[in-house]
Structure to design on (549 residues):
């Protein structure tokens, strides 16, 4: 996926659905739509991970929320 | 009491119960009568539990009569999105697949409401598996907006917003994964709060996305939302994602002074593409907040466009995990829309999904640092467009429909990825005569601050008291 207009092939999606997920009932053309969508979703995450310098250390989102919490004590 | 008890807010009804000016049975009978009257047109209830509700109301009256009042919700009739498990009660999740599903245990929400003595009137319509922001349901029929049945209710907590607006219950609990409380609240002209991720237990609530789901109130007023929040918030040992932080007395904090609260006005993203009549209502709301003593400060928010897509990758991956078995075994039982909303998640690589989750804390920290260093709360639209007609969300070209559907959650979805609280407050009517609303977004666990500002706004305006003609039937 080196160019913006590249996307997964419909055949890849079809094969993954059948072989890995046991799904065999998709409408004609649906695999191509999913290929475009999966490419778009995955590239957005990949680009963000590149730009934000992906951190390989353990993290916990709940702890992040708590550490950044509002000090509502001013409202008491 | 001589006036119609259904004109009361939840808080006013609670005060009337406390003063013995009205009984729980009277309130419950009034709600049940309204629900039976409006449901043929609005389809907001999937199940009305008249017998159980009246029995609960009688118990509440007896306890209150003995001086054993449990709290402000004791004896107050509520109804909830059909996704909170109760042992022995069908909980459909708005789906055909779970049309006969009977849980074997009570959700945390059900237990807390029972302990508070609230009356459960019935279960409310919702989007199938909480996945359609327009609020539609092809299995049980669309819920209708009491302000105009030809326009959408918003979703996925469609029945909650519709029933509260129609005065068929005094409040409701819904869930919000990308706007599912705030969007229908805005569209039906009621108040709605999406709490901070982890503030309310989700044990026994039908999930859509474990990383993004939040349970919260929809009610006529911000004060009513505060009452519900004080009941449902807090640590639950059965939900490891619930946070062990003290729960404020949200209602008591409503009356604290604003003290020149700094209201952040985003320079980028949130106001791009806002339709003129919606913008006019938002501008008026800002003037009211300024007159109340708030200080408006312009802020730049970190990039949001890509966040919308990253959030989508998380929702779809988690939803596909939950629905994988049914996608294999009974795909025909999904609506086309629902299936299309989850299928891509089967194919998003695990590495991308995990990257998205790993980035979340970093993105949150950047957002909080950039926005909340300058502002105490962020002011934004709930939805940037006027409330569309149902036909605009179903007919037309796929591109046209998709544009409307995406617009519905364009200002709310990222708030879930960030895990932040968001409050929807009605602020008038747009050019097509439908409700408009603003959104207040806060730091993690800033619910008290949002509620305080929203309550102050409602003390200076009367938009939240407006009722659709349907509420007079």
């Amino acid at each position: 996926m080196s160019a913006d207009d590249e996307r997964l092939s419909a055949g890849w999606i079809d094969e993954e659905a059948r072989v890995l997920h046991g799904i065999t009932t998709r409408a004609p053309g649906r695999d191509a739509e999913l290929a475009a969508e999966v490419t778009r979703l995955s590239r957005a995450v990949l680009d963000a991970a590149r730009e934000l310098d992906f951190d390989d250390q353990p993290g916990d989102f709940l702890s992040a929320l708590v550490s950044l919490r509002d000090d509502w004590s001013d409202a008491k | 009491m001589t006036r119609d008890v259904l004109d009361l807010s939840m808080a006013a009804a609670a005060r009337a119960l406390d003063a013995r000016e009205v009984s729980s049975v009277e309130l419950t009978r009034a709600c049940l009568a309204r629900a039976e009257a409006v449901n043929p047109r609005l389809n907001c209830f999937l199940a009305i539990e008249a017998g159980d509700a009246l029995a609960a109301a009688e118990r509440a009256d007896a306890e209150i009569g003995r001086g054993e009042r449990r709290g402000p919700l004791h004896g107050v009739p509520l109804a909830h999105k059909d996704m909170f498990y109760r042992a022995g009660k069908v909980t459909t999740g708005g789906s055909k697949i779970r049309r006969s599903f009977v849980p074997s245990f009570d959700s945390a929400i059900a237990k807390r409401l029972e302990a508070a003595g609230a009356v459960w009137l019935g279960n409310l319509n919702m989007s199938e598996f909480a996945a359609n922001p327009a609020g539609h349901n092809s299995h049980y029929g669309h819920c209708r907006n009491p302000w105009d049945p030809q326009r959408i209710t918003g979703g996925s907590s469609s029945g909650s917003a519709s029933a509260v607006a129609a005065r068929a219950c005094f409040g409701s609990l819904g869930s919000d994964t990308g706007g599912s409380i705030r969007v229908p609240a805005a569209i039906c002209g009621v108040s709605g709060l999406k709490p901070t991720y982890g503030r309310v237990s989700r044990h026994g609530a039908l999930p859509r996305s474990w990383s993004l789901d939040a349970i919260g109130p929809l009610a006529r007023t911000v004060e009513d939302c505060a009452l519900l929040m004080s009941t449902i918030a807090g640590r639950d040992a059965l939900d490891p994602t619930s946070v062990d932080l003290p729960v404020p007395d949200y209602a008591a904090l409503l009356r604290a002074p604003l003290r020149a609260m700094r209201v952040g006005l985003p320079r980028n993203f949130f106001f791009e593409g806002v339709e003129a009549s919606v913008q006019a209502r938002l501008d008026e709301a800002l003037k009211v907040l300024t007159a109340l003593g708030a200080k408006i400060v312009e802020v730049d928010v970190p990039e949001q466009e890509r966040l919308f897509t990253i959030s989508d990758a998380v929702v779809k991956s988690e939803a596909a995990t939950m629905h994988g078995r049914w996608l294999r075994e009974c795909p025909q039982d999904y609506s086309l829309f629902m299936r299309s909303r989850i299928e891509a998640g089967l194919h998003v690589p695990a590495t991308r999904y995990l990257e998205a989750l790993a980035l979340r804390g970093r993105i949150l920290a950047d957002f909080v640092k950039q926005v909340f260093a300058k502002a105490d709360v962020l002011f934004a639209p709930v939805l940037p467009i006027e409330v569309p007609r149902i036909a605009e969300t179903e007919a037309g070209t796929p591109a046209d429909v998709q544009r409307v559907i995406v617009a519905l959650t364009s200002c709310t979805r990222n708030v879930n990825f960030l895990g932040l609280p968001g409050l929807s407050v009605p602020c008038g009517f747009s050019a097509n005569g439908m409700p408009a609303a603003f959104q207040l977004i806060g730091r993690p666990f800033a619910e008290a601050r949002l509620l305080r500002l929203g309550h102050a706004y409602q003390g200076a305006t009367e938009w939240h008291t407006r009722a659709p003609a349907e509420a007079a039937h």
Observations:
- Chain B touches chain A through 51 residues (CB under 8 Å).
- Chain B has one domain: 5-472.
